[in-house]
Amino acid sequence: MSRTQSIKILLLVIVAAAMIQGGRQLFNHRHFQLPIIAGPGVTEVKKLSEYCQDIEDTMADTYVFFLEGKEPGGKTLIMASTHSNEPAALLAALIFLENAVMEKGTLIIIPVFNHSGSRNTRPGDGYPLYFEIPTEWGKKKFRMGNRDASWLDQWPDPDVYIHYPDRQLLSFIDVRNTNRTWPGRPDGPLMERVTYAAMQIIREENVDIAVDVHGAETMFPVTNCIVAPEKSKRIATMTTLTVKAREKFDNHVEPSPSGFRGLSHREIGDYSDAMPFLLEAPIPFLDQPTGPKTEALLMDGKDPFLLSLAKEGKLFVSYDETGWPMAKRVGQHCSVIQELMTQFSKKFPDKTISVQNVPRYADVVKNGVGHYYKNPDQADEKNVYFN
Ligand SMILES: [Zn+2]
């Protein structure tokens, strides 16, 4: 064997070893199961495929939890993990799921809405595959997902995504983005079927409030806010004013543009009787000019580059050495979601939605996010769902 041949074989072995090692990590991430504990308020658990059969036995299917109150009232749908790289949404949804008890009305929670996206990642951007939340019983481990569904579950992408039914031309990648595929259709691409199934929940269950929970860059103007169309504007405005006055954190309302199609805050309102709200809390991790995309940055939001940009007035949120800790973002979501229900109930008392046992902003900041999670090893097996 010549020297050149030996070098080629050696290189081949090194490349193959790197591929196997890297591939194994991605395989394990895609198959990592997140234990979710159905709390004392959960009365029924369904799958999303019960509302659109064609997602059954696909990576798009996911759990839908129902918390029905002792007394009838209005209904709220909370969707988290539309974008799984904005995890404060999932963390807030799990606080509701594991703790909330409904006095009046019904809460419907889909914690891992784009299930395929939650099992996807962005290796080119150096995303961590997992993150951990400290609790009183140890660390709870989560998958860090991506904004879009995986190619493994929906492929190929078109050159241009033609939105259904408006035929607006969107970026090709948005065909896998469940905040562009609303209102969806039962026989469209897989992500259109996911949003269609959620529309069916909203229409069949007569949902009054649909809350899609997100995170946004500090350099993006639509952050730390509620995005609301005209029909939801009044309740959104009362909510932001109330949390600002009583709980002392910033929040404002952004109008949902009527000409930009496919977004939850636009299409849910146009295609059902529900009032949609999209919540954004700042997530410095997603800003472009930061240091490495580490788990620490995801958790505390501290970054020296953002700090210098903040001093030049380039950010749309207040920002200092304390960064933007996860507990603040999750706490904001907990308060804003509860305040939306309070304001809705004031306006429509016959459809009161009253939730108990969920912390507000100050509680989450004081006690930490993990304080509200139960230990799956000690929970009754029948209440643990792997999502
Ligand atoms: Zn988002």
Overview of this protein structure:
The chain is an alpha/beta fold and 387 residues long. Helices cover 33% and strands 21% of the residues. It contains ten helices and 15 strands. The strands form four sheets. Strands 2, 3, 4, 5, 10, 11, 12, 13 and 14 form a nine-stranded mixed β-sheet that branches. Strand 4, helix 2 and strand 5 (101-110) form a beta-alpha-beta unit. The longest helix has 29 residues, at 3-31. 49% of the residues are buried. The model has no long low-confidence stretch (mean pLDDT 97). Zinc ion (ZN) binds at residues 83, 86, 214.
* Overall body shape: globular
Distance separating the two termini: 52 Å
Bound molecule types: zinc ion
Order of helices and strands: HEEEEHEHEEEEHEEHEHEHHHEHE
Return Rg in Å: 21 Å
Uncertain residue segments: none
Briefly note the structural class of the backbone.
alpha/beta
Fraction of residues in H or I helices: 25-40%
Mean pLDDT: 97
Assembly status: single chain
Query: How many β-strand stretches?
Result: 15
Q: What is the beta-strand fraction?
A: 15-25%
| Tally of DSSP helical segments | 10
Largest sheet: 9 strands, mixed
How does the SSE layout of this entry go?
Blueprint: H1 3-31, E1 35-37, E2 44-47, E3 63-68, E4 71-79, H2 88-99, E5 101-110, H3 115-118, E6 130-135, E7 138-143, E8 160-162, E9 169-171, H4 190-204, E10 209-216, E11 225-228, H5 233-247, E12 252-255, H6 264-271, E13 275-282, H7 295-300, H8 304-311, H9 326-347, E14 354-356, H10 361-367, E15 384-386
Helix pairs in contact: 2-9, 5-9, 9-10
The protein binds zinc ion.
